Amino acid sequence: MRIRQTTLGTAATLAAALGLLVATPAVAEASTTSPAVATTSRTVAAHPLPPAVPSATPPANGSGPVCWFGACYDYVSGRQKTDAAGASILMQQSAPTLKPGDTDSHSLQELAVQSADQKSTVEVGWTVDLGLNGDLLPHLFVYHWVDGQESCYNACGFVPVSHAVTAGMALRPGDAARYAIVNIGGDWWIFYNHQAVGYFPGSLWSGGYTRAQTITAFGEVAHAAGSTCESMGDGRFGSAPGSGWIRDFQLLDAADSAQLTVTATSPALYDSGRVTPTAFHLGGPGAGPC
Question: What does 246-283 look like in DSSP terms, one character per residue?
């Protein structure tokens, strides 16, 4: 699918974005009360998305972890192929368990919008990452790829616009929050609970990436090869009662209605449950306590 080059007028796109962002969710959204922390920059070596495959489909159920960049990654993913100016999701924030003292592993949930070839990407979500954040709380993060080239967390061209909601800030486990990515006037804007966090200028892609053709909402666990003690979500399997969730998936100015396809790379360790076209539960304990 070729990337659509026609961009909506700024005013029309902003109006549509605001309509998406204020949509009433199925559950109440709780705003964070945790203090902001210093923005941290780190390369992507421990944070890739699943590698692009010719069909651009999610990894098959039971296909096993994706191992590259010196580590292995397990996913529970909801993905849709479409053409859209952006998307939003409501996510539960959790504090998954990592191996004590391990600064290379992480556990996160995020929303990502990608080009048709999956080489240009904008991401927003929360991550528990001792090496990145210095603690085991969930933190808000943003990230981007340009033509398959890695960048860094919360910086590398990102333009912040808020002092109250900042990339890198600590979040409160158990809260629910809306995360959104919207292209407005050629720039990719990040929203958290309806508040603008900042944007990635379209000039980072030389103006060539203004719409997304692959939208993915997912949980990701990074771990050493052969070691999967890290948990996803709240540590409960997605198929179990009380597990973590992603819901109220919405598309902005899209060619199709919202329709997620949900898969898990290692369902014996991390799985999904209660799947609908716009929601799913996810999580798991990994191979056992760290």
Answer: EEEEEEES-SS----EEEES-TTTSEEEEEETTEEEEE
> If you count DSSP H runs as helices and E runs as strands, how many of each does the chain have, helices first?
2, 15
Residue 202 main-chain phi, psi, to 5 deg: -60, -20
* Residue 203 dihedral angles phi and psi, to the nearest 5°: -65, -20
119 vs 283: CA distance, rounded Å: 27
The model's pLDDT over 120-153, given as tens digits with 9 standing for 90+, comes to 999 999 999 999 999 999 999 999 999 999 999 9
Closest to 118 (Cα-Cα) out of 21, 16, 228, 215: 215
21: β partners: none
CA dist 191 and 197 (Å) reads: 5
Please give the Cα distance from 190 to 162 (Å, whole number).
11
Distance CA 5, CA 132 (A): 35
> Parallel, antiparallel, or unpaired for β 244-252 and 86-92?
antiparallel
Q: Please name the residues in contact with 67: beta carbons below 8 A apart, sequence gap of 6 or more.
A: 73, 225
Question: Could you tell me if 244 and 220 are in contact, meaning their C-beta atoms sit under 8 angstroms apart?
Answer: no
List pLDDT tens digits, range 68-91: 878 899 999 999 999 999 999 999
Full-model pTM: 0.85
